[in-house]
Design a protein that fits this description.
Order of helices and strands: EEEHHHEEHEHEHEEHEEEH
Structural class: alpha/beta
Number of strands: 12
Strand order of the largest sheet: 8-7-6-9-10-11-12
Bound molecules: S-adenosylmethionine
Shape: globular
Distance between the termini: 51 Å
CATH superfamily: Vaccinia Virus protein VP39
CATH topology: Rossmann fold
CATH class: Alpha Beta
């Protein structure tokens, strides 16, 4: 069976992206396996679907060509426009915190390279909505994701502070830039029973990864998880400060 950029994989019994099939045995596989074993499973990420996604998505194709050799290192890398692709462990850890199930409708704020969006697409096997405020990054990421078969990831250029009301509510929301507060429009667009993960704190300072849960009765609960450091969330959120 073939559905757009996704293929039925007899090996795994699930839908697989073209990238997943290509990644099955390329020259980068040993590095990717080592990255997962040492940096991700070797720490505290245990969710099998997240580990599978991290083993599958070809991270080296999401970084600038000059940085390809470093793609599987235990650190973030520059992707141009003053922005970064996050450290692999942080991508995996934040994805695990979302407790995604297959079919979960997910919003990402901060597409950057498109890598996190591809990881989300591998885990949920359905549409991922991703917003990037820097136009050239949004364009490059959208083209890259399409080329790699992640056609189910929908990228738009805009201010993610405002969310994407046309596709709300979302089962999960992930913000991959540091916000000064949790944006109310994103809380509004979270489904009851849904989760949001967002770094909160000052720009260029150590921030806290905050987990926001909307309970079935609509009550919103927040808790601080680990300290992190992300590039700032720009747009409306900053102008209000
Ligand atoms: N998730 C990305 C990846 O996998 O490559 C890395 C994201 S990078 C750490 C943060 C991104 O958030 C940058 O590309 C930045 O331009 C974007 N960003 C910052 N403020 C934003 C906003 N208000 N709306 C959408 N994107 C924003």
């Amino acid at each position: 069976m073939r559905t757009g950029g996704w293929f039925w994989s007899a090996a795994t019994g699930v839908l697989a992206s073209a990238a997943a099939l290509a990644a099955g045995g390329d020259e980068w596989t040993p590095q990717r396996e080592r990255m997962v074993a040492e940096q991700i499973a070797g720490r505290d990420v245990t969710d099998a679907a997240v580990l599978r996604a991290m083993r599958t998505v070809p991270r080296h194709l999401f970084v600038p060509e000059a940085a390809r050799r470093e793609a599987y290192g235990d650190y973030p890398l520059p992707i141009g426009q003053g922005q970064t692709i996050s450290q692999p462990y942080i991508v995996a850890y934040m994805t695990q915190l979302l407790r995604l199930k297959p079919g979960a409708k997910t919003l990402e704020v901060g597409t950057g390279s498109g890598y996190q969006a591809a990881v989300l697409a591998e885990v949920t096997q359905t549409n991922v909505y991703s917003i990037e405020i820097v136009a050239p990054l949004a364009k490059t990421a959208a083209e890259r994701l399409k080329r790699l078969g992640y056609e189910w990831v929908v990228v738009k250029c805009g201010d993610g502070y405002l969310g994407w009301p046309e596709h709300a509510p979302f089962d999960a929301i992930i913000v991959t830039a540091g916000a000064e507060h949790v944006p109310p429009p994103l809380v509004e667009q979270l489904k009851r029973g849904g989760r949001m993960v967002i770094p909160v704190g000052g720009a260029w300072a150590v921030q806290s990864l905050v987990v926001v849960e909307k309970l079935p009765d609509g009550t919103v609960k927040k808790r601080e998880d680990i300290p992190v450091r992300f590039v700032p969330l720009t747009g409306k959120g900053r102008q209000r400060e």
